[in-house]
Amino acid sequence: MTPAAALIVALIAITALIRASGPVLLGGQELPARALSVVGLLAPSLLAALVMIETFGDGSSLVLDERALGVGAAGLLLTVRDSPLGAVALAGAVTALVRAL
């Protein structure tokens, strides 16, 4: 088995253990409503953090380039209209336009 394949298998096993630990530790009990609301916010906050790192980060420095303008345009559109697909299309178009200039 190659090192990459071994790493993938190990990550699959670790992920399965982490996901199974919740129900095992809770023992069939329901989570409180407050805990469920926090769990519901974890995925969007992680996604936002990843977008910020990919948009404004370059190793260990802050970068403001055409990607920032694209994300800003998408953010403005989302404040006016609830259109995620439109926001993605606008971000791509603004980024491409600025890169072309």
Describe the 3D structure.
The protein has 101 residues and is mainly alpha-helical. It has helices spanning 3-26, 33-56, 66-80, 84-100; strands at 57-58, 61-62. The protein has a two-stranded antiparallel sheet. A hairpin with a 2-residue loop joins β1 and β2. α3 runs antiparallel to α4. The model has no long low-confidence stretch (mean pLDDT 90).
Keywords for this entry:
mainly alpha, 101 residues, 4 helices, 2 strands
Question: What order do the helices and strands come in, and which of them pair?
Answer:
Blueprint: H1 3-26, H2 33-56, E1 57-58, E2 61-62, H3 66-80, H4 84-100
Helix pairs in contact: 3-4
As residue ranges, the low-confidence spans are: none
Structural class: mainly alpha
Radius of gyration (Å): 20 Å
Q: Indicate the percent of residues in helices.
A: over 70%
Q: Give the averaged pLDDT, no decimals.
A: 90
Beta content comes to under 5%
Number of strands: 2
Helix-strand topology string: HHEEHH
Number of helices: 4
* Largest sheet: number of strands, sense, barrel closure: 2 strands, antiparallel
So what's the overall shape? flat
Give the termini separation.
48 Å
Strand order of the largest sheet: 1-2
Concise structural overview:
The protein has helices at 3-26, 33-56, 66-80, 84-100; strands spanning 57-58, 61-62.
